[in-house]
Amino acid sequence: MHVSPQVGLGHRRLAIIDLSTGAQPLSNEDSTVWISFNGEIYNYQELRNYLLAKGHHFRTKSDTEVIVHLYEEFGEGCIEKLRGMFAFAIWDTRKRLLLLARDRLGIKPIYYRLTNSSLIFASEIKAILADPEVDPEVRQEMIDRFLTFYYMPGDDTLFRDIQKLSPGCYMVIQNGKAKIEKYWDLNFSSNGMRLREASEHLEQILEQSVELHMISDVPVGVLLSGGVDSTAVLGLAAEKTEHPLSSFTLGFAMPGVIDERPYARLAASTYGSEHHEITITSREFQDFLPEYIWHMEEPVCEPPAIALYYVSKLAKNYVKVLLSGEGGDEAFAGYQNHRSILWLERLKYVLGPTAAPLSKLLCSLNHYLEHDKIAKFGPLLRVPFEDYYYSRTSLPQHLFNSADRKKIYTTELMNKVDKDESLRALRHLVENVAGYDVIGKMLYIDSKTWLPDDLLLKADKMTMANSVELRVPLLDHKLLEFAASLPSDLKIHGLTTKYILKRILEKHVPKPILKRKKAGFPVPYSTWLRTEMKDWLFDLLLDPRAMTRGYFQRNSLEKIMTECVNSGRYSKEMFSLATLELWHRGFLIKARAPECREECVLTTDKVS
Prior knowledge:
Blueprint: E1 2-3, E2 8-9, E3 13-14, E4 26-27, E5 33-41, H1 44-53, H2 63-74, E6 84-92, E7 97-102, E8 111-114, E9 119-122, H3 125-129, H4 143-149, E10 163-164, E11 169-174, E12 177-182, H5 195-213, E13 220-223, H6 228-239, E14 246-252, H7 261-271, E15 274-280, H8 282-296, H9 304-315, E16 321-323, H10 328-332, H11 336-351, H12 355-364, H13 366-369, H14 385-388, H15 405-408, H16 411-416, H17 419-427, H18 438-448, H19 450-464, E17 469-471, H20 477-485, H21 499-504, H22 511-514, H23 525-530, H24 534-541, H25 544-547, H26 554-567, H27 571-587, E18 606-607
């Protein structure tokens, strides 16, 4: 801890680099600049050499101290020099200035509560709630935003008066005033490169990123999903080390579920990693859910996050650092959604005025096509792209986006719902994508919403819950910038997604993995909700505590749950409602569970 009349900094450290002398909070030579830092700076050695040449003196070999001296040289401009994942606070005693900064993609979180008299900030909301003056209170008007997207995009949280610092931004507090500035953004204007030149350049950046992400004073392992991206990371990492790597994957104790483990084993055997596997049951999945909410702090409907928790818990027995393939789909348009909407927009252009009648026909057949993938695109044929691409969940037949929500929400909740406010976090991004093509628009919006507020949030929270650091080399900002500048036909080529990435990975990824159909990480929660978890779901959502919150109409809720159990429809909606109820139970009380109290200290967790 460092406490002065105006500022208190606290820190809990997970030591990865400079294990013996990297303790925090850390200061410069004369204790006029103090820092608390969470993350990794992968170019810190290069920056350290530059600072030594400028006459700076170092007491440690840590990347943390590099930021302190870089701040002395460049002030807030130091942030743009950093290559890595980070969230940090710098207190400048001479200027009486506090600087908060978050990395470009939002890999590391910063939460804060700003009032007229104080600022509380931390890498965990629980640290803010530890302040005796802070009473946890739900922003009921934000419930619809969560149910629209299944996560909370934007700066808001579901807690009243607690916000997130946006990725690629910093906050300066001085003279009683706070201002937030953006220091980085992606540009999807095409550089005009063709395949051969672009491939050579991309491969160089990719290899460099993986090499930098392996810098560590503790063992490094790889998370294997059985897909292209994680296999590529393992293959490139194996080329950069003489020591055998450990790899980890997870399966489910259930017949009939897509099993990623054979592909993960193929990747492991190809590159000689020491491979470890774990399976989980529906009971383990269910029992962990309250703890999942506790660690996530924000309601996020992300069943694969539970799998990530268990596999990182396994990895903890062998390594402290994990590399992941997260981000390849967001950088290079790897989702079927990207391909489908690209072709939808092309079809709308070709059809011209006839698109509207075709849309009406498909909508009239919707009852018969409701289980068909074509059905969801019918209504979109007559809707402008900007009006529907707010997230993967904002399609018209999404339950909480449709008129049916009036049958589900109580009158009290409906009176608080403002759909414009629910969508505001994404609608303001539309202005930034005006000059981009369809692929550029989708990838930009994804990079500002889905990526930091869902995927990266669960990746950080679930691994840090096990004191394991997760690194994402495919989200290195230099790689992202180059990927953004590539022509869209190098990302989606015909029916092939991630076209250029797959081309350069042909020599790094076994053919059966490279050519397999994308599966994501299928967690059989939908089946579990219909079978082993059915009673749990009904007991949770129809419990008097849940009903007295006054959000949902009981009769409608029972009908939807019955439909979920009988047909499998609305599984994601039901899981989101379960997540919301567990969040209320976990956080809307001041008392903390005994096993969690030690986490409720005012800290900025360290991973460096």
